[in-house]
Design goal:
binds ligand LLP, elongated, 12 helices, Lyase, Ornithine Decarboxylase, Chain A, domain 1, 9-stranded mixed β-sheet, 17 strands
Length: 399
């Protein structure tokens, strides 16, 4: 992300902290880079909306031609409002309700990514009632281990996601007998924060074998999301390397390729700005208490995720290990532990890097803390994209 120290300081002053700041130009550049890497064959990038549903960011991607992967009726409504074309939207998730199926059918999506026999039957019934044919892709669980923390591994048979290959085949056979179902594609998702192309190549091999056994002529093959980024400052998974790993195996397949990147697109373009509220040192640790907490960025507490934290204006002096902790009453309330940090004073602005994905979107009001403001910078100009919540917002829905 290319927002300078000077402008970070100015943004913190103008909009207050904690503050989510996104570089909209960098987001578009990353989208273009990913798209170009796969330009050799028809590929649809369906942005995983859950990573960051901010309309100001979603609109940029929609206008650039991206599709979208949604996992709830709420995401569907927001994605359509942001301008994603319904025929470029896939609907994932193990627990779609009847209302959500109906909303998707009315919108006319590219596909429902179906995760169980029961869901497929329910989709057929709902489609029959609405008299709309339902396009679907079975999400096959590839039983491949890939990705970061155990909480975000999804492609193993022990997880709740997808169906096993043999069952997937049976579902396509069963669906062929329903006039209300249309087999549109095949889907598979490995997990998240995957840094090597190798598991994707393996998943492609399994998917191709399955495609050969499915009688229906499927329009697309969706290999999911999960492309990892370098939280340590490294390059992350390169889309060019991913394309090199996948394109040869796709040669000869008539299907359009669909991918569902979330984190890779939006993670590195966002930072969480926070101010130092207090400092304290115990016999064991140096603590820097800041005004952002686990309610604003849950990843460190939930997954032990390690985000880099830097002083926007580093001060001269000795560098030592510090725990950057929030004001929330939980020991798990830390943004980073043991980071190398120079002297910090009350009021100094720190930036938590690579916070664009699953930062704001996983935020809450825990401890009755209003959600932060969010700002998008484009062409050097900052615009408020979501205002800071007020104390009134905390009780707005109470009766
Ligand atoms: N497609 C499906 C079906 C998914 O379940 C996910 C993410 C994605 C695409 C996008 O994955 P990505 O490209 O963003 O890795 N909260 C966790 C990550 C959870 C990912 C859930 N599924 C975190 O903060 O690391």
């Amino acid at each position: 992300m290319s927002i300078s120290a000077r402008s970070s300081e100015a943004l913190a002053r103008r909009f207050g902290t904690p503050l989510y700041v996104y570089d909209g130009d960098a987001l578009l550049a990353r989208y273009e880079r990913f798209r170009k890497a796969f330009a050799a064959r028809e590929t649809l990038l369906c942005y995983a909306f859950k990573a960051n549903p901010l309309a100001a960011l979603a609109r940029l991607l929609a206008r650039a031609g991206a599709g979208c992967d949604v996992v709830s009726g709420g995401e569907l409504a927001r994605a359509l409002a942001a301008g994603f074309a319904p025929e470029r939207v896939v609907f994932s998730g193990v627990g779609k309700t009847d209302d959500e199926l109906r909303a998707g059918l009315r919108a006319g999506l590219l596909a429902f990514n179906v995760e169980s026999a029961e869901e497929l039957a329910r989709l057929a019934r709902t489609a029959a009632r609405l008299k709309r044919r339902a396009p679907f892709a079975v999400r096959v669980n590839p039983d491949i281990r890939a990705g970061g923390h155990a909480h975000i591994v999804t492609g193993l048979a022990e997880t709740k996601f997808g169906v096993e290959a043999a069952e997937a085949l049976a579902l396509y056979r069963r669906a062929a007998r329903s006039p209300w179902l249309r087999a549109a594609g095949l889907q598979c998702h490995l997990g998240s924060q995957i840094l090597s192309p190798a598991p994707y190549r393996r998943a492609l091999a399994r998917a191709t074998a399955l495609l050969g056994a499915i009688a229906a002529p499927l329009g697309h093959l969706d290999l999911g999301g999960g492309m990892g980024i370098g939280y340590d400052g490294g390059p992350g998974l390169s889309p060019e390397a991913l394309a090199r790993a996948l394109l040869p195996g796709l040669r000869g397949l008539p299907q359009r390729l669909v991918l569902e990147p979330g984190r890779w697109l939006v993670g590195p373009v966002g930072a969480l700005l926070t101010r130092v509220v207090a400092r304290k040192t115990t016999s064991r640790r140096r603590f820097v208490v800041v005004d952002a907490g686990m309610n604003d960025l849950l990843r460190p507490a939930l997954y032990g995720a390690r985000h880099r934290v830097v002083a926007v204006r580093p001060r001269r002096g000795a560098i030592s290990a510090a725990d950057i902790v929030g004001p929330v009453c939980e020991t798990a309330d830390f943004l980073a532990r043991g980071v190398r940090l120079g002297p910090a004073q009350r009021g100094d602005v720190l930036a938590v890097l690579d916070a664009g994905a699953y930062g704001s979107s996983m935020g809450s009001q825990y401890n009755s803390r209003p959600r932060p403001a969010e700002v998008v910078v484009r062409g050097g100009r900052a615009r408020l994209a979501r205002r800071r919540e007020t104390m009134g917002d905390l009780v707005r829905h109470e009766l």
